[in-house]
Model the fold of this input.
Amino acid sequence: MKTVIYNIGTLAGILPADVRKLEGAEMNEVECIENAYLVIEDGIITEFGPNVISSDSSVISSDSSVISSEVEKSQHIDAKGGYVMPAFCDSHTHIVYAGCRDGEFRDKIAGLSYEEIAARGGGILNSADLLHETSEDDLYEQSMVRVREIMAMGTGAVEIKSGYGLTVEDELKMLRVIRRIKETAPITVKANFLGAHAVGRAYRGRQAEYVDLVCNEMLPRVAEEGLADFVDVFCDAGFFTVEETDRILAAAAKYGITPKIHANELEVSGGVQVGVKHNALSVDHLEKTTDAEIEALRGSGTMPTMLPGCSFFLGIPYGNAKGYIEAGLPVALASDYNPGSSPSGNMRFVMALGCIRMRLTPEQSFNACTINTAYAMGVSDILGSITVGKKANLIITKPIPSLAFIPYSHQTPIIEKVIIS
Ligand code: NIG
Ligand code: FE
Done:
């Protein structure tokens, strides 16, 4: 099946096939073609370039040859002068969860901090209780509502973490739901085992034993069933220490599972350094950063990933994305969609916060939400840019005046169509 998208006002986010991420000044540019066409065959981008449209509306390339010699066999999509860009890749979410935490929202408004809510037995443990009571089928249905929601907002790839199970069986339940989403949702999905998200209720006061459980019981089962692409640890004040993180990542390495880390959300935790030590694909949050984190990341293959939706919702500092880029590092921006600290998976809003609150240029923010998040979930060879050979996960917008309009007018419903493959 061949699809030709024609009458594209601006085709944005073009990259050479060998680019896996953009760093430093490379993030300042978004390559575009004005008045373009793009051809998709069997879900893959096979061709694109500048076009002119003939009077009978057939699509003609700039050298005046008809792009599709088999017009009848192809589907044509008129982009009506809108932008066509790669769909967002959301490299950090917790969208498999049961119910929600709207009660805690009231506590938060009344003035309790994220840590205070957690210390009262709310927070992640509250979600774990709800998940425990929810059947696997129900959890899948509730989660698929969110998958469809983010797709409609332009997300074409998502990483989903466990971490609301916190017992062997409930962590496996979550990961099986993620596997089912992988099998049934059209978008690309990666699974992340986050058994060390919080200490399960039954292990209260016995954190070392809970870490044993993660390493000796959860990880072997997760690996045996092939349920995780990644392993994660919430390495932060009040959650897991650097030593515990080191142990869990060393255990995961025996199964060849690549780490991604939650670090420096609540305090400068040492999580970045232990992540880099274990070749983490990304270290995420980084609301609190010192020069030491920047130095630790330099020369590594680890993507610093910031989650401005979490800063927005919790009212905590935004990560120093600009400082990282000025230091020559790459930066990715993801939604952190979860019930406690970022109940939104709207990547366009993330892109807007990147500009408005982190002072990234629209181009930097665009790259942070596409190619760099694709890297942070290990799919930048197949997603994250307009590149021949990559999957055609694309957004078509209404006609808009510029790339800057996407984050500038961030609540205007500009997405006309989302194409997945
Ligand atoms: O990334 N920080 C840790 N985990 C999530 C929040 C999870 C929750 O509160 O349910 C996060 O913000
Ligand atoms: Fe998170």
Summary: The chain has two domains: 2-86+385-419, 88-375.
